[in-house]
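Revision sheet: structure tokens.
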Amino acid sequence: MKKRYFVLALMLVLVLLPVISAEKTTIAILTVPHHEVQVIAFDPSNPNAELLGRAKNFSNRWGEINFTLDIEKNFNLKIFIKNEGETVIKKQYDENYEAGEDLFFELMPDGMEPVVKPAWMFPAQPETSNETIENITETNSTEEVIEETTEEGEGILAITGKAIEKITEKIFVKNTLYYVLGIIVLGGMIVFGLKLKNKPKKEEYFNKEIKIKKLSELRAEQAEERKNKDEAIEEKSQSLKEAEEKLKKIQEEISSLKGKDRETKLKQEIIEKERELMKLRNEKY
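Predicted:
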């Protein structure tokens, strides 16, 4: 029974491990408004294209739609755009995307442009005055190009650093999770092994010989058992009888002792009465 529970616990850990280690992967798609969009994530390293995640929904009036999938390993994508059950666009991306990565795709039919959102739906952008543009000299333009190049380089370094930091953090979290689960499973196996070691062995039970007896032998054994039981009952009856006789003798002895004691008291009373009588006679004469 304990072994069964241990196996179930181990299976539960193995089943939950991919779920716990899965990361949120956001997929944003811009396509035709009010169309059915389906995304399928699959394992590129598996010959059978193991399914890692699937989602389906309809794009809004601007053609936008977002999906969030729980994926634990690198993946490829298939995206289907459908209208009333008919596939309008079918696209496969064999880019080996990383789990937890934020992705964006724009999928439009040939000759069709995305719906443009009104300006009021976007945050206001700072405007540059014409006077500033007109007053820029060639020297300032050169300095600006250098500054922009420097800022762009710093931006790339910052993005690269953040990406490395994010990847390192993911690897650390995954490794820590695996170590903790490994320690739990190992501890459970050690405890189960110790309990199994201290459990009494069943070798004696399995090593017992199976004996086949004849009916006559079985009846003889049963008769012998009954005889032994009868003798035991007779011995107990005899012992009980002897005990009763001893008890009777003791009661008789007690009765005789009581009688002797009473006789002694009566004799003593007679002697005292005779003395009183003699005393009265002497006083009279």
